[in-house]
Write a structure and sequence with these properties.
Distance between the termini: 12 Å
Number of strands: 11
């Protein structure tokens, strides 16, 4: 095995679907693709430098204004290190896509730094560091994207204070179709449409669905998973920001999806399915919606990525 303490390391971290309908800010799962790749090289400068960004010209190379720089600096601070690092970012996840663009970069960066510096931090520590990148990106240090991007599979954030993240079971035949209309919905804007308070009636519905989804995952009960993919808190408000959302959701359900909702803060929409064949059928159906509307899009069919961020 290569000794990564020597000089340079490269890490890939996957895109993610967060919220998973009912689990606002607490549930998420990792996709096989797309993803971001971060390369970190030790330097003698005692500062973090972002030397190149490929695939996203709008992102800042100033490490204090880039999620990668913020996340890695948080790790270095806790380690008590002033090790200089030169960072190269390759964006496979488009910013503002709703599939964890900032999270993939933050996750790959902290995993890379942890291995390169032989820091020995746990996955929970790495989630905590990457959350600071999320704080920069959206104003809130949420973990529902960074946790599955780092740990793989489905994750549940049981608590934020103290941070407690649980990796959930994933049924073997669970697949996902994700469509990304080529419009941008900023996370901060998408959070802005949410209400500060929800009714007791909706709260009861929502936490019943969270419990049902977690139980369905552990029981390999696809029907229960499908019944639980209901969001009465965020989707009714955020869906108004996504052209054609209701038509896409209906098309996915008609094509056989277990459930369909907004991925993260949008505009991407995901459909969970039993089996790759149904996922591909859903991808075709939802693609036709945006073809008819005339909005460019990208569509992905993916199993659940059980590995998470990895050295490549």
């Amino acid at each position: 095995m290569m000794n990564y303490k020597e000089h340079t390391i490269k890490v890939f971290a996957p895109a993610t679907v967060a919220n998973v309908a009912c689990g606002f800010d607490v549930l998420g799962f990792a996709l096989q693709a797309p993803g971001d790749t971060i390369t970190i090289t030790k330097t003698d400068t005692q500062v973090i430098e972002i030397i190149d960004i490929i695939g996203a010209n709008s992102l800042s190379k100033n490490p204090t204004n880039n999620v990668v720089g913020v996340a890695v600096q948080t790790l270095l601070n806790e380690l008590g290190s002033k090790q200089g690092l030169a960072i190269r970012i390759e964006k496979g996840v488009k910013p503002g896509s709703g599939v964890g663009s900032s999270a993939a970069s933050s996750a790959a960066a902290v995993v890379a730094a942890n291995v390169l510096l032989d820091a020995g931090f746990s996955n929970l520590d790495l989630v905590r560091f990457a959350m600071e990148g999320e704080r920069l990106a959206s104003g809130t240090a949420h973990a529902d994207n960074v946790a599955p991007s780092i740990m793989g599979g489905f994750t549940l954030v049981r608590s934020y204070n103290p941070l407690d993240v649980i990796r959930l079971n994933t049924p073997n035949d669970l697949f996902c179709a994700v469509i990304h209309p080529q419009i941008e919905v900023k996370t901060a804007d998408s959070r802005g449409v949410l209400q500060e308070h929800i009714s007791l009636k909706n709260a009861v519905i929502q936490w019943g669905n969270v419990g049902g989804l977690v139980a369905g995952l552990f029981m390999n009960d696809y029907a229960l998973i499908g019944r639980s993919l209901q969001d009465v808190v965020a989707e009714p408000l955020r869906s108004k920001l996504i052209p054609g959302f209701d038509v896409v959701k209906n098309a996915a359900m008609v094509a056989g999806a277990l459930g369909c909702s907004i991925s993260g803060s949008g505009p991407s929409i995901f459909a969970l399915c039993k089996g790759k064949e149904i996922a591909e059928k859903c991808a075709k159906a939802i693609s036709e919606v945006y073809e008819n509307i005339g909005i460019p899009f990208k569509v992905y069919v993916s199993g659940i990525n059980q590995e998470g961020a990895k050295v490549i």
